[in-house]
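Title: Prediction job returns without error message
Component: structure pipeline
Severity: low
Priority: P3
Assignee: unassigned

Description:
Job completed but the reporter wants confirmation the result is attached to the right record. Sequence as submitted:
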Amino acid sequence: MTTEPIPTEPERQQVKVNVQGSSNSVYGIGMIGAWVYYFGRATTNEERVKAFLKGLVWPAFLVYELFKFLEKD
């Protein structure tokens, strides 16, 4: 015979799901690809600075070009 108390309610366990890793990875790979693309075409220091900044915000350019494409009849 045991002296442990009998649980009246089953214990509830919380499960936390984290799905942020995949989107961050895609953004990071895209940023590196954008830098390769923009730095490959830069010839002056000013263009290299712009290439760095464009690489940070590449999704905005992607969505802009997508909307321009979809607007065509």
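Comment from assignee: result matches the submitted record. The two ends are 81 Å apart (CA to CA).
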